[in-house]
Q: What sequence folds into this?
């Protein structure tokens, strides 16, 4: 049943994953001693600007490191894009996750989504979405395919461990993180913040109108709800976090999605972490940052099974 739903969702969004090859790279040093690579990936519809931060691996014999495909948020800020990974945003703690994750031993890659960052020249979000609809496609599907290509690139690097690549994001980035992990079984696990909410309850109270056009997936509710999609990640590790006062994920929609998610993890409860910061809104708090980093560190380096 899980595989059948995954295949139907892949068909719905026009899933066509591949490996995005890096055509150029420029290295720089981060103040914390990490290496930053500025890349141009060859995507399915053209160039995809990307930034990767990784530990400084001076030993040729160093083992491949775990990796994060970081998915940037929306927030109406079309200029920031992938820079959020290093700099943060108005919805994130500053600086971004990149350096902290590199300090934990991860390589972290973030790409600009269509219409964001250095891809603003491709068009405005509404224009891109409408053009995709006319072609029988979706902007969300385009985004996921770009991320799938970036995942393939990460998995192909000799300095990263293809079996330990995780996804991470907040808001739009959260939707990308759990959808990609749901559709791509090779993703090792997922951490997402401030986005897990079922769609039908959002429509019922009008909250859907406050979410970006990118999220529109015609026909989705005939197949599944958000909680069902994220449930396809089971039994891989998943961290779902919400702000208690987040008006974009109101309690009815949030709780419905979490109920579906918990049901999918029945028998694998230790692989799912659901967290709520009661005073938080639609944004990351310091406590969320600590919890996410702890989750990813444990997921990438699980404790060995006890000797029997």
A:
């Amino acid at each position: 049943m899980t595989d059948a739903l995954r295949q139907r969702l892949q068909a719905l969004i026009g899933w066509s994953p591949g490996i995005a090859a890096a055509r150029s790279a420029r290295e720089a040093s981060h103040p914390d001693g990490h290496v930053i690579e500025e890349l141009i990936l060859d995507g399915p519809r053209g160039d995809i600007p990307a930034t990767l931060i990784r530990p400084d691996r001076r030993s040729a014999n160093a083992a491949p490191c775990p990796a994060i495909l970081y998915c940037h948020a929306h927030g109406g800020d079309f200029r920031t894009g992938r820079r959020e990974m290093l700099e943060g945003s108005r919805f994130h703690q500053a600086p971004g996750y990149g350096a902290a994750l590199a300090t934990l031993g991860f390589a972290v890659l973030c790409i600009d989504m269509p219409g964001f960052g250095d891809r603003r020249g491709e068009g405005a979000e509404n224009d891109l979405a409408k053009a995709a609809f006319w072609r029988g496609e979706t902007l969300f599907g385009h985004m996921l395919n770009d991320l799938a290509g970036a995942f393939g690139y990460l998995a192909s690097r000799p300095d990263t461990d293809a079996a330990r690549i995780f996804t991470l994001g907040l808001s739009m980035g959260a939707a990308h993180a759990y959808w990609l992990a749901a559709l791509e079984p090779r993703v090792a696990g997922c951490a997402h913040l401030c986005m897990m909410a079922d769609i039908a309850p959002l429509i019922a109270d009008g909250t859907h109108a406050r979410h970006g056009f990118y999220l529109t997936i015609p026909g989705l509710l005939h197949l599944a709800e958000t909680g069902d999609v994220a449930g396809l990640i089971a039994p891989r590790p998943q961290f779902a976090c919400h702000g208690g006062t987040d008006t974009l994920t109101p309690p009815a929609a949030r709780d419905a999605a979490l109920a579906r998610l918990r049901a999918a993890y029945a028998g694998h409860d230790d692989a799912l972490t659901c967290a709520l910061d009661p005073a938080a809104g639609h944004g990351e708090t310091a406590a969320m940052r600590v919890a996410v980093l702890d989750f990813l560190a444990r997921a990438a380096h699980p404790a060995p099974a006890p000797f029997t």
Observations:
- The first strand starts at residue 21 and ends at 29.
